[in-house]
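Lab meeting, action items carried over

1. Structure of the two-component assembly. Owner: GW. Status: complete.
Input record:
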Amino acid sequence: MNTATLTRTPSARGPRLLTRTLASEWSKLWSVRSTWWCLASAAVLMVLSTLTLGGAHSTDIANHNVPEKTFEASEAVVSATTFVQFALIAMAMLVITSEYGSGLIRATFQATPVRGRVLAAKAMVLAPVMFVAGVVTGGIATAVEYLLLSLDAFGGSIRVTPAGTVADLCTTGVYFALVSLLTVGLGAAMRSAAGTLTAAFMLVMGLPLTLAMSGSQVALDISMRMPMFAGLAFMGSTDNLTGGRIPYSSAEGLAWLVAWAVLGLVAGHIVLRRRDA
Amino acid sequence: MISLNGLTKRYGDKIVVSDLSLSIKTGAVTGFLGPNGAGKSTTMRMIVGLDRPSAGSVTIGGLPYARITEPLRTIGALLDARAVHPGRSGHAHLVALARSNGIPLRRVAEVLETVGLGAAARKRAGALSLGMSQRLGIAAALLGDPGILMFDEPVNGLDTDGVRWVRGLMRSLADEGRTVFVSSHLMSEMQLTADHLVVIGKGRLIMDAPLTEVIARSSLTAVVARTPHAGELASRLTAAGIGVERLGENELVATGAAIERVGDIAHEAGVRLHELRTREASLEQAYQELTEGSVEYGART
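Predicted assembly:
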């Protein structure tokens, strides 16, 4: 052996190795344009949907269609997650499917042959980024919504309270983080972008809506435990697409969301370990 | 050192690699040859833990790949030049790889310089030509300054200068004491660079021998004799169990015997020789003989 290969640093163990994989995944995330495009799309979608939903709410109040007299600005952010989540699901999906699509996954696994560590690092990089994305895009949307809808023309029914805003923005961030974990797990299991996007859409929104509309009580109960409604329950939404209330607490909503995220990651991990890269 | 132990890969009932056992020599260039579909790439993927063997095992310095803590510092592999995100720059690609193995980031600039990609490194990898992608792949393999290097068809897509550069690089890596394991279908290229050859066909080991031996063993490696008594010499050689082919009135070719033996027989018979020389088979010819009958996807001739 030449001298260069002998003068290596002492080999690292456990936590140190995970830190390195995290650093690698972090630099991968920010060195492709798609990340920035997805975040920008999420921000634009968030502002537009929040404005639309908030505007509809103030109109309802002005026309006395609803019993309330005022409404919290950030509630519209919570409802807007239904649409905004797909920009972020795309981003989470690309973190893994773009590696399979380009063949990069083989370089990744050569560098880090413990595949579970790669998936864990991807999840640990995505979750905080998604949380911040939720808080920041939600915060911008709330501010824009408040500035516009507090104009006299909209009846002045909008209000902003620090406690309500913080709660809504934080739960939105947590929801995005958990949905992105479910997605990255699905991506590891499915490998293809098309398959992952379809599976994520069906689990998050397609199936819950179909089941909820089927009319069967069992189907409705199941649909209420799927990610979208579990998320709305967790975020304390008073305004969801079904019009009805979700029959359990915010804490139970969080529990269901965590269960979905874990299920996705476990499925992804099983496939990663078993299948050839 | 890379050791393959009864390595086998099956897809359904198709056996791609069959009970392959060999060690790859340290400090030498080992050429890995075989027809398309012989199982070369699958073998290489199993070495770096991307494909799981159906039976048998591979170890690198005694360890299975997944147990090596900083694999890029032990073995650098170029398996597929396109294994890069097309939207990420070559520089960022190498930075991510370096971080994953605790390799100092100054190595990124160093290896980019080594492969002559300095200027193009900030471009999106998708905008690189196949030759430049190949160079980026080689840069990634060199990143951790590993003692073992493995290249799958490294000269694909390279121009003449690039081919010569890769040849020089492989030689200098081996001269530094590193192990180089390289697959190729370009026999002339292998004849120039390899010290040792591993030949497989239909997933089975056909030959594991030094290059000189592979060529010497070929039936096309022969002794050519020019003599006015070609008939006499031919019958003596045939009697000694040596294959003979008459090339003309005064010329014959003896196969399966060393030049000394042919000379001695001629001397004993009192046959005057005007010329006696060895005709070496090319690696291409030797290889074709070895792999006849094990061509997976050959055209019928």
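2. GW to write a short summary for the group page. Key points so far: Residues 160-175 of chain B form the longest helix (16 residues). Chain B touches chain A through 41 residues (CB under 8 Å).
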